[in-house]
């Protein structure tokens, strides 16, 4: 595949970082967008060109998109922190980035959305992404929507480790809820593959899931990972429940598991992907050390 130029937003974060690594590994050029180039030296070391830009204001976007072959758009409501989500900001990031792609005539846009962003969910976390998906269709941009499931990496990040060490995994949903999961590195591989496939992916919305586990199973596996027993506790705070929305519990959990497994196989086959299962992900993820252990 000929070397091509891709603009990646959110490159200093998890998804954009993974997309950047996958594209560079395949020999492409990456313009890694950040509001603060000073914090992107690792991306430069990897071989990316670091470009200053802001999806809210549009600063730097025309220059970044000049003669680019593709644009990976990552929007976030958490630009001011996880405890103060700003969904209007996420809509604005989407409108600005998609508008810039339209003006620049960018040949391929990938918009990163989320599983559940099908609209009218009533959950703010999904509504802003659904609005951006609608905007992309209104603008008739040549492109693909990726809807990643919950990141496997959430469960192994340093911020959750203290609680796991205390033997507890908590989330605002019932213990038997089956959660669809994806490894962030697989989002990078999926975006790179879809860019390389070009027009094959135009107009497609791709749900990215690599596994589906109940919270009870996740707690048990995380326990093996850190070497101690972990139990699941449903978080009761109604604000937390509102933020993530109700995940319906399937009437037949075993059939639900088989259905999702069939969907993962179809996803792998259609797009030539290999989706990481949760035990494999844990097996290749070192347990982070807490500051107190350094
Ligand atoms: N965690 C999950 O399980 C999950 C699952 C599905 C979807 N999602 C969605 O994934 C998104 C977050 O992705 P992530 O976890 O990969 O991000 P992340 O690691 O939290 O990093 C956020 C990135 O967004 C960039 N950013 C923030 N505001 C920006 C702006 N105004 N202009 C340009 N860039 C901006 C930051 O870049 P700079 O600071 O360098 O500018 C940074 O690279 C959220 O929308 C979330 O809802 C999360």
Keywords:
single chain, 294 residues, alpha/beta, Rossmann fold, seven-stranded parallel sheet, three-stranded mixed sheet, 11 helices, 12 strands, 18% strand, binds NADP nicotinamide-adenine-dinucleotide phosphate
Global shape: globular
Low-confidence stretches are none
- How many extended strands? 12
The CATH superfamily of one domain is identified as NAD(P)-binding Rossmann-like Domain
Task: Give the termini separation.
Answer: 44 Å
SS strand fraction = 15-25%
Outline of the structure:
With about 290 residues, this protein is α/β, with parallel strands linked by helices. Helices cover about 40% and strands about 20% of the residues.
What does this 3D model show about the protein?
Helices cover 41% and strands 18% of the residues. By secondary structure, the chain is of the alpha/beta class. The protein has a seven-stranded parallel beta sheet, with helices on both faces. Strands 7-9-11 form a three-stranded mixed beta sheet. The protein has a domain at 5-151 and 183-210 and 266-273: 3-Layer(aba) Sandwich (Rossmann fold). It has helices at 14-25, 41-46, 61-65, 87-104, 124-138, 158-165, 184-197, 215-226, 238-244, 253-271, 278-283, and strands spanning 5-8, 29-34, 49-52, 70-74, 109-112, 143-148, 150-151, 168-171, 178-182, 205-208, 211-214, 231-234. The chain is built from eleven helices and twelve strands. NADP nicotinamide-adenine-dinucleotide phosphate (NAP) is lined by residues 9-16, 33-36, 54-56, 74-76, 78-79, 93, 114, 148, 150-151, 154.
